[in-house]
Amino acid sequence: MSLIPARFARTGHRQGLHLGLIVLALAILTLSMALAVSIGEIHIPLITTFKALGNALGVSEYPLDRIHESIIREYRLSRALVAACCGAGLSLCGAILQALLRNPLAEPYVLGISAGASTGAVAIMVLGAGGGAVGLSLGAFLGALGAFAVVLALSRGASSSPNRIILAGVAGSQLFNALTAWVISTSASAEQVRGIMFWLLGNLGGVRWPDVTLALSVVLPGFVICLLFARALDAFTFGQDAAAALGIPVGAVRLILFAITALMTATMVSMVGAIGFVGLVIPHAARFIVGTAHVRLLPASLLIGAIFMVLADIVSRVILPHQSLPIGVVTALVGAPVFALILYRARPPL
Amino acid sequence: MSIQAHGVSWSTAGRLIVDDVSLAITPGETVGLLGPNGSGKSSLLRLLCGLRRATEGVVTFDDAPLEQLSRREIARRLALVEQNATTDADVTVLDVVRLGRTPWRSILSGWHEEDSAAVEQALAQVGMTTRRHQSWHTLSGGERQRVHIARALAQRPQELLLDEPTNHLDIQHQLEILALVRRLSTTCVMALHDLNLAAMFCDQLVLLKEGRLAAAGKPESVLTSQRILEVYGVETVIERSPHHGCLHVHYLPRRDTSTQAPLTPYA
Q: Has UniProt tagged this entry with the keyword Metal-binding (chain A) (predicted)?
């Protein structure tokens, strides 16, 4: 199977080709997750991983080392699943925001939505209001919505100049980062500060099964709803007025998709912290493989995002001996150069 | 059976842009919308297709008020070609023309024979059939405009609105686009700047001044020296061209020196 850009593929082969790509991506995702489960402080052979998976799903009853099985079940599998969900969700958000805002640099982190979610979550965590995973998610969600409102208000008229929204995102990020720093410096204990700082850069260490349930229950329905709007997103190619002239109820579509984006980002940030650039890099990679039509772009972003994040998690754990990097550091090290590249390519022709 | 505007006004940021305009578009005709910069041509087009909501007055399609129609119903009947609309996305000619089928496809419906037929016909009408796989970013301004018109035609509209379709094009491509629009059997309303091209290619002209209707009718009745002086402040001599039989506007250099400093001759 070769990575043929969609426009060269003949219509007859198209469906088959894309189905093949999806199967291939699912296979790579499964393998990456198995690797993520095997690799760690205690190395577990791949074959043990698959056996444990079989046992967990109730399709087999292999006798396995109980410690291995419990590490796989309780820690690594849930971590790999949440990583996959986060990658998928953030990439999906990036693809949606890039289409709605007609800006190749749009994604939750760049637009300050992640920063807003962090502020909300940190406020809940430090001030002790609510508490628990649900309270944290709620705080992050409100923060994300607040950040979204700030960015949209600052960039009114974004359709005439798509770059304004990025500048608004910069302003929003600064504002929310300042608020987060304020909450931390005035209210947090030294121990809390250390935990929060690590978490702000993205950390998959603390995730357990309830997080998996929450992540899946947000990402999967979110994906299905976004997919229903795939054609509407295509209609935004030439801007909001063009979409409206093609019969798209622009206001309602924007509201629904922005709300889903905010919800997905908030859920991810509340679980694993602000992980940057995934939503930026992955949709561009996906476009390179399947083209610009959203009915193919959205599933491709979802799958590639999941694979990318699982692999990034492996890298973050193995790159330093006996120590793991925050995953946000890994994604930023990949993402920032890609951001620069897109910026360079998007420069006006001389 | 047509689009009509009944006393339509639209204001934004406290400024009245379109001021009490009433007009009826006769089916099958090509209508030119003329007026100086900022006279409300683009805004009037957007009011006619429901992209802006009139602050006063109503726009009706076959006697039904526009507000009673859904966006999709409007898009099935009327298509808009915007001024210099472009994209960063890496799309092909075919991708863009296929967008025209959006109002005819429900969320889950597939791509039907009828959609293909509409797209093929639209591509043929603008002469882009053989270049369907070409990337948008490799097209010239005139070609992009033709693709936009094809996209609009794929909507199978009864009326086509065009906002300065010849903007930024050289004269060859201006003539080509206008001849193309003229050949269409669809009713067309287009905002134009060039009075001579408007006289050559339009059945009816609508002249706007500061958002108000200054004149409407056949080119002969709209384009008079007196009116052009009133609307544009430019002196003209208008005669029928012996070469193509349409009206031709000759612009005269400004003579009154009271409102403008005299040109200083180069030393």
A: no
User: How high is the mean pLDDT of chain B?
Assistant: 91
- ipTM (interface predicted TM): 0.88
- Which residues, including other chains, have CB under 8 Å from residue A211's CB and lie 6 or more apart? A78, A82, A133, A271
Which residues 6+ apart lie within 8 Å of A145 measured at CB?
A116, A262, A266
* Phi, psi dihedral angles at A87 (to 5 degrees): -60, -45
Is residue A14 a part of any domain in this protein?
Answer: no
C-alpha A100/C-alpha A239 separation (Å) is: 8
Largest CA distance in chain B: 73
Q: At residue B27, does pLDDT exceed 80?
A: yes
To 5 degrees, how large is the angle CA B209–CA B210–CA B214? Answer: 25
Q: Name which of B51, B83, B100 is nearest B163 in CA terms.
A: B83
- Distances, alpha carbon B258 to alpha carbons B236, B254, B255, B262, B263, in Å: 19, 11, 9, 9, 12
Whether residue A24 contacts residue A299, with contact meaning beta carbons closer than 8 Å, is answered with no
Strand order in the sheet with B78-81: B78-81, B159-163, B187-191, B30-34, B204-209, B212-217
Residues from chain B contacting residue A228 (CB–CB below 8 Å):
107-108
**CB hemisphere CA count around A251 (13 angstroms):** 4
CB–CB contact B99 A235 (8 Å): yes
Token output for A78: 């849930």
Look up the CATH number of the domain holding residue A269: 1.10.3470.10
Q: Are A72 and A52 in contact (CB under 8 A)?
A: yes
**Which of B47, B48, B51, B78 to probe the A interface (max A CBs under 10 A)?**
B51
Summarised one tens digit per residue, pLDDT across range B58-85 is 999 988 999 999 999 999 999 999 988 8
Interface mutation vs chain B, best among A165, A231, A233, A295, most B CBs within 10 Å:
A231
Mean pLDDT of chain A: 84
Q: Exposed, middle or buried, B173 (CB in 10 Å: 0-12/13-18/19+)?
A: middle
Chain B residue whose CA is closest to A104: B88
Query: In order of start, what are the domains of chain B with their CATH numbers?
Result: 3-251 (3.40.50.300)
**Residues in chain B closer than 8 A to A234 (CB atoms):** 99, 102
d(CA B170, CA B150): 20
Token reading at B124:
């043929």
* Domain-embedded: residue A16: no
- pTM score above 0.95: no
- Which pLDDT score, from 0 to 100, does residue A346 have? 62
- Is A71 inside any structural domain? yes
Residues 6+ apart with CB under 8 A from A272: A82, A83, A86, A202, A203, A204, A207, A327
Of A232, A238, A250, nearest to B87 by CB-CB distance is A238
Q: Is residue A1 part of a domain?
A: no
How many domains is chain A partitioned into structurally? Answer: 1
The DSSP code for B81 is E
Residue A293 structure tokens: 């039509």
Task: Print the domain residue range for A332.
Answer: 29-343
